[in-house]
């Protein structure tokens, strides 16, 4: 499987995956809205396809061996399910059925770890766990889970693999997306942190996991790509160590976060776009921890320290002046 079609190639994961695929001598066709905004490596084995997820890709997918579908709406401030369903479910299924028609061999869907039940340090979440609150009320997670379920129901029509990455960090975070957590804590004299924790992973490790799944993944399986389970306090301490900063660290009590969440819910009733919601605030208060045992065993992954992801992200933001 040497010919790969990738959607969402200008995002954090998409750019890293595209560069990684080219390093491994794959031939890549990448879907992008605007070719001029691509920040990845220019390469003779890369063909940029300018277009939209709802375009007809029948001719483009001829001779493609594998699709890696990354493009999605990840915003946390939309007030209803419809836009998430349209892109994360409907566009996914349209691409999936086009892939079947074009006789593509493998379809890899990049979802989210939040469709899988998290755990704590004594009982980590795994691919066997079903979605848990508060994420089962998240429009984003719901749309991804709906797509997962429909894809797996049709796995006999085409080899289908679900990739469930946790919170990714690294270079080429062009928006930025998840890297905002670094920008909000970098060069601050006072740093407020929530009481919970989550699993962090280097985006390059997720990229390696996707590449390994092209040849080693088993159709119909879900793979958690996860690494370090740590509290937000310990995560911010790692940033402080790397950047040689010593901000005043203040823990935000759970009750304050919940009040902020209820305020966000109220604003949403009046159609205000805000990241504040009880769902998002509750997520900051839990131990959102996962196991990577399956990906290590089946995809032969070797995860690198999250300090490397922090360093790569900060170096990228420094070089692009996104700070």
Give a quick precis of the structure.
The protein is α/β, with parallel strands linked by helices. The chain is built from 10 helices and 13 strands.
How is the secondary structure organized here?
Blueprint: E1 3-7, H1 12-23, E2 27-32, E3 46-50, E4 66-69, H2 82-101, E5 106-110, H3 139-153, E6 159-165, E7 167-169, H4 180-183, E8 190-193, E9 197-202, H5 203-216, E10 222-225, E11 228-231, H6 232-243, E12 248-251, H7 254-269, H8 278-283, E13 287-288, H9 293-299, H10 306-320
Parallel strand pairs: 1-2, 1-4, 2-3, 4-5, 5-6, 6-10, 7-9, 8-12, 9-13
Antiparallel strand pairs: 9-11
Task: Summarize the structure in words.
- The protein is of the alpha/beta class and 323 residues long.
- Helix content is 37%, strand content 18%.
- The protein contains ten helices and 13 strands.
- The chain has helices at 12-23, 82-101, 139-153, 180-183, 203-216, 232-243, 254-269, 278-283, 293-299, 306-320; strands at residues 3-7, 27-32, 46-50, 66-69, 106-110, 159-165, 167-169, 190-193, 197-202, 222-225, 228-231, 248-251, 287-288.
- The strands form three sheets. Strands 3-2-1-4-5-6-10 form a seven-stranded parallel sheet, sandwiched between helices. Strands 7, 9, 11 and 13 form a four-stranded mixed sheet that branches.
- α3 links the parallel β5 (106-110) and β6.
- α1 packs across α5 and α2 packs parallel to α3.
- The radius of gyration is 19 Å and the shape is globular.
- 46% of the residues are buried.
């Amino acid at each position: 499987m040497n010919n790969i079609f990738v959607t969402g190639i200008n995002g954090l994961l998409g750019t890293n995956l595209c560069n990684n695929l080219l390093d491994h001598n794959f031939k890549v066709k990448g879907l992008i809205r605007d070719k001029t905004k691509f920040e990845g490596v220019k390469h003779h084995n890369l063909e940029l396809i300018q277009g939209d997820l709802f375009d007809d890709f029948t001719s483009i997918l001829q001779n493609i061996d594998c699709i890696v579908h990354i493009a999605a709406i990840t915003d946390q401030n939309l007030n209803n399910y419809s836009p998430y369903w349209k892109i994360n479910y409907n566009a996914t299924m349209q691409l999936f059925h086009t892939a079947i028609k074009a006789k593509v061999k493998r379809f890899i869907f990049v979802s989210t770890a939040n469709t899988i039940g998290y755990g704590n340090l004594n009982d980590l979440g795994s691919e066997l766990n079903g979605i848990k609150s508060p994420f089962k009320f998240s429009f984003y997670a719901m749309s991804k889970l709906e797509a997962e379920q429909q894809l797996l129901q049709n796995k006999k029509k085409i080899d289908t693999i679900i990739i469930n990455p946790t919170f990714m960090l690294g270079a080429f975070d062009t928006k930025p997306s998840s890297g905002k957590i670094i920008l909000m804590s970098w060069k601050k004299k006072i740093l407020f942190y929530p009481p919970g924790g989550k699993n962090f992973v280097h985006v390059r490790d997720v990229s390696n996991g996707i590449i390994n799944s092209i040849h080693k993944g088993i159709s119909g399986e879900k793979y958690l790509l996860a690494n370090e389970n740590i509290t937000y306090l310990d995560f911010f301490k790692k940033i402080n160590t790397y950047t040689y900063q010593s901000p005043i660290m203040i823990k935000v009590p759970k009750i304050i976060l919940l009040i902020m969440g209820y305020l966000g819910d109220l604003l949403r009733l009046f159609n205000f776009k805000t990241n504040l919601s009880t769902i998002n605030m509750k997520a900051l208060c839990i131990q959102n921890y996962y196991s990577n045992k399956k990906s290590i065993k089946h995809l032969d992954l070797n995860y690198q320290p999250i300090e490397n992801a922090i360093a790569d992200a900060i170096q990228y933001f420094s070089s692009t002046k996104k700070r």
